[in-house]
TrEMBL record:
Subcellular location, record wording: Membrane
Segments traversing the membrane: 87-104, 116-134, 154-173, 193-213
Main location: membrane
Protein name according to UniProt: C-5 sterol desaturase
Native organism: Coniosporium apollinis
Domain Fatty acid hydroxylase: 200-325
Alphabetic keyword roster: Membrane, Oxidoreductase, Transmembrane, Transmembrane helix
EC identifiers of the protein: 1.14.19.20
GO MF annotations, alphabetized: delta7-sterol 5(6)-desaturase activity
Length: 378
């Protein structure tokens, strides 16, 4: 994250903090000519420059990518290494970055034109890309597609992201302040072999923990309070990918944040993995059942999870579902164009879903488009 913070500081936050929280002029002057005694300590307490702008020294976050800071980096009451500034900056970046997934270009067909005004990037970007080019719009006719579903998915995501970001900041802050095992050059890391191995290690580690966290979220004592909002969507759209109760979304993201405190992780690999995670989360909700893989927990597996609740808790692989006895092979019909969106398959899905939902949730309080339409027709 320090690389990301440096980029944002250079192009945006330096100027913002220098404008909103300028260092008093005297401090700035002192920074230019610090009064020190010959032995290098400050001559008297009164002359000690406040530990703001004056103490900050630029050190690039990475030797591969760095930006020489301009004058704005030195003239704020909150210098770049102030813990308060870092916390606020990380909060804004996390919130913005999360939202970016969904936000940039809400589709014109969206039922909520107002949400197009907000300029927040990755969620909106990925989900919108997926919605426009991958997502099968026939889903809208599924008997279990909800009234105003996309609008509700986006609203749930927008509501959760600022809260999730608050809980995520402490991890990023510790990491930016150098408490994690993140490394820059290969010489600082375990070696060339690890530059490759860290990817499968990260996936294996997080896959294991997310499986158990997700499974725990389905425990009857927790489910209704925390995880039910994400299961409102029986036939999710790409916008459901981040539509969680904030604590649910956060709980499932903890393994990603804990990893670099236990294992070494290259800084850019981390950024790449974070982007991958978010794209993956959108992909398993887009209803495009690319491959009928026995190993990968793809969109078909996750569709099974949204339809039938207590199966396929996995994130990346089916390994823990198989070992934990919760694996359910996606219906064959999903992989054939003719049958995937067929009335017969949908009817079968709806009947089984209703039966399981009754067991898991009791009364079903969802409002389905088809129900509303049939009531109107009567
Ligand atoms: Zn679930
Ligand atoms: Zn889901």
């Amino acid at each position: 994250m320090d690389v990301v913070v440096e980029v944002f500081d250079t192009f945006f936050f330096d100027r913002l903090y220098a404008t909103l929280l300028p260092a008093p002029y005297a401090q700035y002057a002192q920074y230019a000519t610090p009064k020190t005694t010959p032995n290098g300590t400050y001559s008297s307490m009164r002359e000690v420059p406040t530990p703001y702008a004056s103490t900050y020294q630029y050190r690039p976050a990475s030797e591969y990518l760095s930006f020489q800071p301009g004058e704005y980096a030195y003239i704020s009451r909150w210098p770049r290494d102030s813990v308060f500034r870092q916390a606020v900056t990380l909060y804004l970046i996390t919130w913005y970055a999360l939202s970016l997934y969904t936000h940039l270009t809400i589709p014109r067909t969206s039922t909520n034109p107002r949400s197009r005004i907000f300029g927040l990037v990755i969620y909106f970007f990925c989900a919108t890309f997926s919605y426009l080019f991958i997502f099968d719009k026939a889903t809208f006719n599924h008997p279990k597609y909800l009234k105003n579903q996309m609008r509700m998915e986006i609203a749930q995501s927008m509501h959760s992201m600022p809260i999730m970001a608050i809980f995520t900041v402490p991890f990023f802050l510790l990491e930016v302040r150098g408490y994690s095992r993140m490394y820059d050059s290969t010489a600082e890391g375990p070696g060339m072999w690890y530059n490759i191995l860290q990817f499968p290690l990260f996936i294996t580690f997080t896959d294991f923990f997310i499986y158990w966290i997700h499974r725990a979220l389905h425990h009857p004592l927790i489910y209704k309070r925390l995880h039910k909002p994400h299961h409102k969507w029986i036939m999710p759209t790409p916008y459901a990918s981040h539509a969680f109760h904030p604590l649910d979304g956060y709980a499932q993201s903890v393994p990603y944040h804990v990893f670099p405190f236990i294992f070494p992780l290259q800084k850019f690999a981390y950024i790449a993995l974070f982007t991958f995670i978010n794209v993956w989360t959108v992909m398993i909700h887009d209803g495009e059942y690319v491959a009928d893989s026995p190993i990968i927990n793809g969109a078909a597996c996750h569709t099974m999870h949204h339809l039938y609740f207590n199966y396929n808790y996995g994130q990346f692989t089916t390994l823990w579902d198989r070992l934990g006895g919760s694996y359910r092979k996606p219906n064959e019909e999903l992989f054939r164009r003719e049958t995937k969106m067929g009335k017969e398959e949908w009817g079968k899905q709806a009947r089984e879903m209703e039966r399981i939902a009754k067991e898991v949730e009791g009364e079903d309080d969802r409002v389905y488009v088809k129900e509303v339409e049939s009531k109107k027709a009567r």
